[in-house]
Design a protein that fits this description.
The complex is a heterodimer of chains A (261) and B (320).
Chain A: E1 3-8, E2 11-13, E3 34-36, H1 38-53, E4 57-64, H2 70-79, E5 83-87, H3 97-111, E6 115-119, H4 130-138, E7 142-152, E8 155-161, E9 165-172, E10 175-179, H5 191-197, E11 202-205, H6 218-221, E12 224-231, E13 239-242, H7 247-257
Parallel strand pairs in A: 1-4, 1-6, 4-5, 5-11, 6-10, 7-10
Antiparallel strand pairs in A: 2-3, 7-8, 8-9
Chain B: E1 3-7, E2 10-11, E3 14-15, H1 17-29, E4 31-37, H2 45-50, E5 55-59, H3 63-66, H4 70-83, E6 87-91, H5 94-106, E7 111-119, E8 126-131, E9 136-142, E10 148-151, E11 166-169, E12 182-188, E13 202-206, H6 216-226, E14 229-232, H7 234-238, E15 259-263, H8 269-272, E16 280-285, E17 298-301, H9 304-319
Parallel strand pairs in B: 1-4, 1-6, 4-5, 5-11, 6-10, 7-10, 13-14, 13-15, 15-16, 16-17
Antiparallel strand pairs in B: 2-3, 7-8, 8-9
Helix pairs in contact in B: 4-5, 6-9
Classes of the chains: A alpha/beta (261), B alpha/beta (320).
The complex binds flavin-adenine dinucleotide (FAD) and adenosine monophosphate (AMP).
Flavin-adenine dinucleotide sits between chains B (207-209, 233-236, 247-252, 264-266, 268, 270-271, 274, 284-287, 290, 303-305) and A (38-39, 123, 181).
Cofactor (chain B): FAD
GO molecular function, one term (chain B): flavin adenine dinucleotide binding
Keywords (chain B): Electron transport, FAD, Flavoprotein, Transport
Chain lengths: 261, 320
């Protein structure tokens, strides 16, 4: 039987660009270049490796996001994923983590799955909670923040490197895992991969396809509200000295003045 | 006065500092009721009482150590039912955020993660967050259900505020999902004797400029002269010079110490994301154009192999 892997990927504003908020205090996604969240590339990579080691597997990439989010799906397809699903709906604008997890869970169920793989966090929201929320909704085990992952005989195993300890974890499929940027370098799409991706199927679903009401998502459905967003004042220019043999001592003098010594 | 649930992060009964900071914040909103789970749960009570916990709900079972996340969600949900609090506060660790998120979903609430400050508001607690690599600061509120908020370390001062801290056994029934994720092995991290990175008042970090694992002894010597924690950039970690647990930045630890000293670190956006909120920032870098200098209160353009040992010597001399 085939192993059905769904990878959740997010389309995010480029972190090296000038990110800001729109007037309604949602993340501005119009004025900034977007891309497949770098941390989700690791999820795609692990999905491809697991599928390469399985007898028969299929990798579907799934995104919830605006029109341009197709770019993220294209990138994942050119890395080697088999097919893609794009959940897109005007009513999704402003959806928070709780709402996103609802849409993802419904879409994952509709797609059919044995294993879901997510990134450790999105590079814009950086909450790192969506995989846990999806696990709660699907009622399957969460095996998150793995720096190593493998699947064998219907069991997923992995290593989670925490602060206090490094843990070996395992769970029965179906399950959801998330992988960190320590899980292994993500591959670059080859020219062949990029060409092949153009022919791979991308399905588009809206909220009605998932039996979700507009009020359950978007700004109206949000459980949290951003009331103010202020640009942090630039740090006041500090003192910069060139080391002419006394740099360490000058630094010590500064630290003493600040009462650190 | 309304009660506020505070999830206790402890190691075999020793309460970690971020939990005590949480008690300070909880007292701005209401009366802190602490929830301590697992081995040594009851031993946390004295410390928690000293810092303002009016009550300490405890429960121990092997499930907390043997399975990930869900047993703790079950317990926190039981505590939520027992107390009907005005808010639930959880330390922003990786597991803390996951526990908080699942609890929020179960109790029909919203969740705010990684708050750096918390105030009481007319319509419930208002959380301050630092976003987009700390270039923006936002104020948010949970507008449905009991606010569930995770708070970053170093967000408030630890304050003594003696309270009753009466220990009560929490009654917990585990859900059938509790045993889904099994912990089959655990290798505890060896203690370096240095302060915890996220909790330290001073952090001394090294980057690609340190140029080799063996050279990190220079960084460690400076850290030890200041009683500081040691951090590293991802470039240094990826090169295998220092453990990943010490990485500072977007995919490592986010730190907010009184003093951050960056050595041989260029200051890429992903690194800044984890240290930009430090009170005082100092850097040593031989490239005067390195972006890290945009952040510093004091910077030395120079070779770290000259500057850092001289600094360490000078600190030792001054400290006598
Ligand atoms: C999704 C994603 C997540 C990331 N997460 C993180 C993260 O969590 N943390 C992180 O740090 N990075 C992260 N990065 C990587 C980040 O983009 C940078 O590549 C990294 O921070 C660079 O590390 P560095 O400053 O040590 O190295 P470099 O950028 O190579 O800088 C080295 C600096 O050392 C100086 N130098 C060299 N020799 C000396 C000397 N002898 N004396 C003094 N100065 C010297 C050089 O002038 C230079 O400025 C992430 C990247 C991505 C894409
Ligand atoms: N809109 C989305 N579409 C698809 N996947 C998402 C979306 N938002 C979050 N995810 C997944 O959840 C992970 C964690 O996201 P977050 O909790 O937002 O930090 C990401 O790395 C993605 O795998």
């Amino acid at each position: 039987m085939s192993l059905r892997i769904v990878v959740t990927v997010k389309y995010v504003p480029d972190a090296t660009g000038d990110r800001h908020f729109a007037d309604d205090l949602t993340v501005d996604r119009d004025d900034v270049d977007g891309l497949l969240s770098e941390l989700d590339e690791y999820a795609v990579e692990q999905a491809l490796q697991i599928s390469e080691n399985a007898d028969d597997a299929e990798v579907t990439v799934l995104t919830v996001g605006p029109e341009d989010a197709k770019d993220a799906l294209r990138k994942a397809l050119s890395m080697g994923a088999d097919k893609a699903i794009h959940v897109e709906d005007d009513d999704l604008h402003g959806t928070d983590a709780i709402g996103t997890s609802l849409v993802l869970a419904k879409a994952i169920e509709k797609a059919g799955y044995d294993l879901v793989i997510s990134g450790m966090a999105s590079t814009d929201g950086t909450m790192g909670v969506v995989p846990a929320l999806v696990a709660e909704r699907l009622g399957v085990p969460q095996v998150t923040l793995l720096s190593e992952v493998s699947v064998e005989g219907g069991v997923v195993k992995g290593r989670r490197d925490g602060d206090a300890a490094s843990e070996q974890l395992e769970a029965q499929l179906p399950a959801i895992v998330s992988v960190t940027d320590q899980s292994g370098e993500a591959r670059y799409p080859s020219f062949k991969g990029i060409m092949a991706a153009k022919k791979k199927p991308v399905e588009s679903w809206d909220l009605s396809d998932l039996d979700i009401e507009a009020e359950e998502v978007g700004l109206d459905g949000a459980f949290t509200k951003v009331e103010a967003a202020n640009e942090r004042p630039a740090r006041t220019a500090g003192t910069i000295v060139k080391d002419e043999g006394e740099g360490g001592k000058q630094l010590a003098e500064f630290l003493a003045g600040q009462k650190f010594i | 006065m309304a009660e506020v649930l505070v999830y206790v992060d402890h190691v075999d009964g020793a309460v970690r500092k971020p939990t005590l900071e949480l008690l300070t914040l909880a007292r701005r909103i209401g009366e802190p009721v602490a929830v301590a789970l697992g081995n040594g749960a009851a031993d946390t009570a004295a410390t928690l009482a000293e810092h303002g916990a009016v009550k300490v709900l405890t429960h121990d079972a092997s499930e907390y150590a043997d399975y990930l996340v869900v047993p703790k969600v079950d317990a926190l949900q039981a505590a939520h039912e027992a107390v009907s609090p005005a808010a639930v506060l959880v330390p922003s660790s990786a597991e803390g955020k996951e526990i908080a998120a699942r609890l929020a979903l179960r109790i029909g609430s919203g969740i705010i993660t990684d708050a750096v400050d918390l105030e009481a508001g007319d319509e419930g607690p208002v959380a301050t967050q630092s976003v987009f690599a700390a270039s923006f600061s936002t104020k948010s509120r949970v507008i449905k259900g009991t606010p569930v908020i995770t708070v970053k370390p170093n967000s408030a001062a630890v304050e003594a505020a003696p309270a009753a801290g009466a220990v009560e056994a929490l009654s917990v029934t585990f859900s059938d999902k509790a045993t889904g994720t099994k912990v089959t092995g655990r290798t505890p991290r060896e203690s370096t004797g240095r302060p915890e990175l996220t909790e330290a008042a001073i952090v001394v970090s090294g980057g690609r400029g340190v140029n080799g694992a063996e050279n990190f002894s220079i960084i460690e010597a400076l850290a030890d002269s200041l009683g500081a924690a040691v951090g590293a950039s991802r470039a240094a970690v990826d090169a295998g010079w220092y453990p990943h647990t010490n990485q500072v930045g977007q995919t490592g630890k986010s730190v907010s110490p009184q003093l951050y000293i960056a050595n041989g670190i260029s200051g890429a956006i992903q690194h800044r994301a984890g240290m930009q909120t430090s009170k005082t920032i100092v850097a040593v870098n031989k490239d005067a154009e390195a972006p890290i200098f945009e952040l510093v209160d004091f910077g030395v353009v120079g070779d770290l192999f000259d500057v850092v040992p001289q600094l360490t010597e000078e600190i030792k001399t001054r400290k006598g």
